[in-house]
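Please think about what follows:
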Amino acid sequence: MRCRRIVVIRGTVQGVGFRPFVYRTAVSRGLTGAVWNESGAVVVDVEGDSSSIEAFVRELRSGAPAIARVEAIDAREAEPAGRETFSIVESRPGETRHARLSPDLAACPACLGEMSDPADRRSRYPFINCTDCGPRYSIVRELPYDRPRTTMASFTMCEPCAAEYAEPSHRRYHAQPTACPDCGPRLTTVGLDSSEDPVGAAVRALRRGAILAVKGLGGFHLACDATNEAAVQTLRRRKARCAKPFAVMFPTLAALEQAARVGDEDRRSLASRRAPIVLLKRGLAAGLAPGVAPGLDELGAVLPYTPLHHRLLAEFSGPLVMTSGNRSEEPIVWDNQLALQTLGPIADAFLLHDRDIVTPSDDSVVRSFLGHERLLRRARGYVPDTLPLCVTGPGVFAAGGDLKSVFCLAREGTAVLSQHLGDLDTLEAQRSFETVREHLQRLFDVTPRAVAHDLHPDYHSTRLALDLGLPAVAVQHHHAHIASCLVDNGRNERVIGVAWDGAGFGPDGTIWGGEFLVADLDGFERAGRLRPVPMVGGDLAAREPWRLALAHAVEAGQPWPGTRSTKTELVEAMVRKRAHTTLTSSAGRLFDAVACLARLRETCSYEGQAAMELEAASLDLDMPPYPLPVIDGSLLELDARPTIAAVMADARRDAGPAVIGCRFHSALASAIEDACRLLRARSGIGVVALSGGCFQNARLAAQTVVRLESAGFEVLLQARVPCGDGGLALGQAAIATRRLFRQSLGRGPVL
């Protein structure tokens, strides 16, 4: 019996080869009808016998293209129309409120094969792509995702490209960025011999030790020979980035495996279409310049992911530093003219192209541990993938924090996070924040009814949110961390939340950062903390760990072991008198203090440097943890005074950072277990959510999880969004949405 169904497929199904997949599947089953894009979905009007249609609908999910993400399939019956063929028809413009857009994707094996084939018309073409790979988010101006709405609109396809684009059986059918050397984007150079092949000229400059600015997929990179210490130090000096690690791009996985230890999960991340930077333990025969990642035992490694990168790395035949193309602490540069002005004092030469970038994105960064890839920086390759929010409600804009800025747009139970936007300390970063916000709101047709922001009144993100003039929800920093962890795990229940980071404004006016909360999306109770210590200098303490080391030493009744000066005398006096100080329970600052007392460093040039170096220096030794007692009371307190005394005793015995780091990490994990046991006994809650930047420390996270699971807890960690401040906005959005929902039921406060 002949039937007809109208099938609507929602999810990431536009710009990923879904319509050609539907066409091939329908034709192979003898079905007739049509398929088109509409309102952020793929719509199929299909006719045939009922069993074939049933099998066809099942295959829409099971056999979908690898880069597609099917979230829902709805079907309804219709009267047969007697169609005799199946066709792909033009997109039907409409509302974009349900739109899903694929992230930018790494070059696929088929395109790389063509590029390496001397007989192929796209041989060596650095902008080769198809429906399975290439730019999406970085080039789209508006949805639906069609060529006229992208920056490829200015490139008119030649006849062969147009024929492929129009052929449903071809893998470049409606591949919007499709092009070839005759009709597509082209490379140019500045500061190099323009008569030479641009890639060849760039390679020769890199071999001479030059700094090269390379326009990539989501913006510019600054590149140099990663084995040339002089070149690396020149890049550091010009970029004013004295110690923060550089990412390194290797030509092949085999070359990378000579420099780092690569596990199975690492390989999957490196080879994925998302192609993030992966943090790896260094190998013994790295061969890299010492200045690539000074003081650390890890390497940020990435494989070529654009055709241009593949050509550049293959011809260079070695690893290249490939760091964000910006001045230190400013947003990534993506425009050619702006790059020449901004990066001119840094780069010796430029490798440019004429495909415009609408939305810039840094490289994403991941670290694999405990069997999962875990995002530390969510950007290219992951954005703008959407996330389910666990709660539903009207549009909300969540502004995130000031460091590692990421904002969130949420509506109807779905959230989309921006790419990593950097720190908001500069006017350029704040302008970039606003530009990306306006673009994403248009792209996904979100009209916020309310804004969510951090409780800290001086955050730039708070001001940017309040400037929108909408009802506002202020969300405590550490509550947002735990909510983010809940949403990332698809949970909506009351948990013991361990939120440890550098700093977050507390409702009591102090700086929180070593918190135990009993929390859900509706609210939280502060159940425990690290014992507060006086902090002198505010944010300066994060750049000068000796300040917290001195404060902790005073609190522990220990003499200051460092060099005495007028400044240290003044800080010590202020700590003792509690004059011009702020109390902080920060776990991040405790890490800094211990790193300083272990004689690793007294000052930092980038956020988290001291803690990262302490983690890197630590060894797995069979030694007892330092004492870190949990003082039972209405508010639990982890008393670090005995910890600090023991650290200083080991330092006096020249135990070294390896021993001190080992015993300190063990002490923290043990104390977290003890505190969670006490809170479980009080609350009956057996689920622990770990969040905050301190849990990006793989040593701390792994030891804590092992201890908690051995004690019978279920432990939630984050994977799809960072556990640091890059995940704050997701938690803020969930909390604000939940509050709006409760308000609509008359159960919550008026905003």
Q: What stands out?
A: Residues 207 and 216 are 20 Å apart (CA to CA). The longest strand covers residues 2-12.
